[in-house]
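WP5 quarterly update. Target: CoB--CoM heterodisulfide reductase iron-sulfur subunit A. Source organism: Methanochimaera problematica. Length: 427 aa.
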Amino acid sequence: MSEVAVIGAGVAGIQAALDIANHGIKVHLIEKEPTIGGHMSQLDKTFPTNDCSMCILSPKMVDAQRNPNIILHTLTEVKEVKGEVGNFEVKLLRHPRYVDEYTCTGCGDCMDVCPVEVYNHYEAGIGVRKAIYKPHPQVIPNVAIRDTEHCIDCGLCYDVCGPVAVLHDDEDKEEEFTINVASIVVATGFETFNPERKKALNYLRTPNVITSLEFERMICASGPTGGSLKRLSNGEKPKSIVFLQCVGSRDMTIKKTYCSCVCCMYAIKNAILLKEKDPKLDITLLYMDIRAYGKGYEEYYERANQLGINFIRGIPGEIIEDSQSNLEITVENTENGEIIKLKPELVILSVGMEPAKNTAAFANILGIETDDTGFFRSENMKMNPVGTIKPGIYIAGAAVAPKDIPDSVIQGGAAAMKAVSDALKSN
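Structure tokens (predicted):
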């Protein structure tokens, strides 16, 4: 029986793998991170239903792990792809975890005793992690990883581990191996725009200007603040908040001319969550255009208006901070020409999506193309949006263009059916 490779294990990749596996075909689900789940695992709620993000994603992650037709390859990168549809040879590089996946129980004892604290990528820098860690409590596989770059080799994790699962540096090495597959689904996702590139926004130079992803981790009950919204300058709860839209999207000055698709809706979602929790909060959303295009999205926008969230059509030139960490924003309301001065205690930058790191280089490995925006190019956006110029290689999710979760899931399923067809033909 022919097999299929799915590269990238965010929600689109997981959906593709599950759909292929449910057709009785073996799937290699390849993920460079220590856990599957992608960006969706970092979100608190999803729009327009305000459902818990992990309540939707976690069952899919568990299904992917338990499905006998899915082989998980975490901490693994694709180094080379040869061959053609029906007979691809994919060379993979597995990076060491320095923890035995078969004996580790994920209990967390090693993390409790580790004295080292470093930047936590999963928490978007709002929290810290240990040198031996799990990115979040619901990781799949439920196994720790030891960060040898920051590990001080104190030996405490070795001593406390009952199953003796923590490995020394010489006990786990990089491993290259090759798999043969009939077709490939590429769902490598996206990265969020780094607003440091917009100097006038003062991101990282003032603590009370944060990104939407940092905000997501802050309001999540399982996040580093336990769901408490705080000003990073003094730890106090803000009384006034401004959401600033189109940061890293529709901006000719940084050559990000495309719309990132989800920013309007996730900002409205977060504003609604805050307003429902504390109706006294003064919340303003500064926008260029509100793009509520999906099913139920316009009604969601109207719900935000009814809750008393202020919408001002205008994008400010800069965010100013005084010596007491007070912020000031001057903006023109382009609907009536009024100049407005806002003094929020917290500003949340709605950062857009951009192609995942090294997308162009990875396209060369696969033998496919990227478009002017840097995302993977579809062979035909109207007739075959998941196809590429290379028969047998399909693209899905936010690797193709910015898109929300429902669209990513749908496209993952579409790519899966194309891959299933190739696998069945090659038998």
